[in-house]
Amino acid sequence: MNEKAFYGQRDTNVGRSVRGHPATFGAADQKAEKSGCSPSTLPQFGRYAGSCPMRKAVTVRTTPMTNDNVHLAVLITMPHSHYSEKARWALDRLSVPYQEQPHAPLLHRLATTRNGGSSVPLLLHGGAHFTDSTDILVHMDAVCGGDLLYPRDAGLRREVEALETQFDEELGPHARRWAYAQLLSERSLLRQVMTRGVPQLEAALLPVIMPGVIRLIRAALKITPQSAARSLERVRGIFKEVDARLDDGRQFLVGERFTAADLTFAALAAPVLFPTGYRAAYPALNDVPAAMRTEVLRLRDTAAGRFALRLYVQERDRSHAVA
């Protein structure tokens, strides 16, 4: 079974990455692998100045959500997925009533396929479905009146979107590949992470299919010692860029308040930081291999790492009330 058959083809329009399941190796990564990019040659955030790629069009409601017109949203996830956490955090932040339907890897396809998608997170809301974490944020921000996750100021919005796109395409895929590379040999620990919170039948089935799931993840993610090392270097490079951005003492990445850029960085950095406040099962840091624990502690001790951990402490439980 190939990558597309296992994880599903995701959005590749207008420079967007292929992303969904936390083990998917995205198109942005494939391009970088072929070009032999290193962190020192990766484009900096400034590449987007004044020319952020346009977002793929999504269906949105323009009427602000109220208690009278809101419909219960359904969020289909794999709980440990950091892209699922990104969508979940946005719904919590916007005070959107929703029901999460968590699923185990591979078995999630039973839920996504019958709801018009193939990957997670998948949001069902207002008669439409949204199959990309960023589209979920854009849609729900508009539904809730706008200007909660994306600034109304055009220049600031472009800056937020540029950072979000880079984190989606670079940080997310490389953080998950490195994390999986450390944990695939820890089968019992990985099984606990993948089954916590999922339906009982799926939790019972996963041990049976676990060897196949691990083989598919390893193949889809192209995990080798060399590729994992390259992904860790890219994560370090992005953290250094965020370090530099925070060097002027700012509290948030763009402007004076929390935006989708901050949310995306914190959520997608989770596999290399193990933040307190993550809304799904992560192993205890003391339970992971020593080499992984050492690197996590090293990343936590950067300005970018401290920033992401602070966001989980100070911002993860904050919300905007629906009018």
UniProtKB/TrEMBL annotation:
<dbReference type="GO" id="GO:0016740">
    <property type="term" value="F:transferase activity"/>
</dbReference>
<dbReference type="InterPro" id="IPR004045">
    <property type="entry name" value="Glutathione_S-Trfase_N"/>
</dbReference>
<dbReference type="InterPro" id="IPR036282">
    <property type="entry name" value="Glutathione-S-Trfase_C_sf"/>
</dbReference>
<feature type="domain" description="GST N-terminal">
    <location>
        <begin position="75"/>
        <end position="141"/>
    </location>
</feature>
<keyword id="KW-0808">Transferase</keyword>
<dbReference type="InterPro" id="IPR036249">
    <property type="entry name" value="Thioredoxin-like_sf"/>
</dbReference>
<protein>
    <submittedName>
        <fullName>Glutathione S-transferase family protein</fullName>
    </submittedName>
</protein>
<dbReference type="Pfam" id="PF13410">
    <property type="entry name" value="GST_C_2"/>
</dbReference>
<dbReference type="Pfam" id="PF13417">
    <property type="entry name" value="GST_N_3"/>
</dbReference>
